[in-house]
Amino acid sequence: MKWTTRLLFAAGLFTASYGLQSCGEPAQAAPTAPVINQEAAPQGDNFSYAYGMLLGSNLKAMGMEYNDVDTKELLAGLQAAMDADVKPLMDQAAAQQLVNKTFQDMQAKAGEANLKKGQDFLAENAKRPEVKVTESGLQYEVLKEGVGGKPSISNKVKVHYHGTLIDGTVFDSSVDRGKPISFPLGNVIKGWQEGLQLMPVGAKYKLYIPANLGYGQRAAGKIPANSALIFEVELLAIE
């Protein structure tokens, strides 16, 4: 997906005036790669190089690739925002509107792709004999059955869990942290509300949650919009 000239100019104008935070949450720092051309590498405290790395990380985190960016127009936007002798092609409000709309369109397109991937995954997963499917579309698999009582929506529960996307990416895990959590069952996503009410205390289930029973069209931390989710959940207690 190639950015248009006006969009790249707007991105540079917007970035120079508002900084990286305005374009989205800062991306996590990537591992340091070896510099091949030492002569071309920046020496010492090079703010411009560092800022470029941060901007690139932000754009990459939002789905952009290097070839999507016209660096000439990006630099033109930076110059227009910082050099009083250069007349901008648009004002700050127009730049922000254009950048925001583009990222919203990108997120919507990515969300549509995620929804289709999730639906295809769940359709195949439902064919496995060990997987049960409820009327809502929630899928679950009993890993270990429990012998205690089952919680209601008004209960507070204590659980251990491990959450992944359908590609195996871990987005949250009390197991990895080594500490279970407690919460009111009515305060979590619908897939958890339904799934945990099926579980006796002591049980461990694997929940396959469609996007509409998860976070839906909104992204949440490491979870992209319209993602199907997989949780291994162990119900430790009803509190």
If helices are DSSP runs of H or I spanning 4 or more residues, what is the number of helices? 6
Note the beta-strand portion.
Answer: 15-25%
Rounded average pLDDT = 84
Q: Spans of 5+ residues with little confidence (pLDDT < 50)? A: 1-5, 21-38
Distance between the termini: 51 Å
Proportion of helical residues: 25-40%
Order of helix and strand elements from N to C terminus: HHHHEEEEHEHEE
Major β-sheet, in short? 7 strands, antiparallel
Structural class: alpha+beta
Q: What spatial form do the alpha-carbon principal axes imply?
A: elongated
Work out the number of β strands. Answer: 7
Radius of gyration: 23 Å
Annotation keywords:
36% helix, alpha+beta, disordered N terminus, 239 residues, seven-stranded antiparallel sheet, 18% strand
Describe the model.
The chain has 6 helices and 7 strands. It is of the alpha+beta class and 239 residues long. Strands 1, 2, 3, 4, 5, 6 and 7 form a 7-stranded antiparallel β-sheet that branches. α1 (5-18) crosses α3. It is elongated. The model is unreliable at 1-5 and 21-38 (pLDDT under 50).
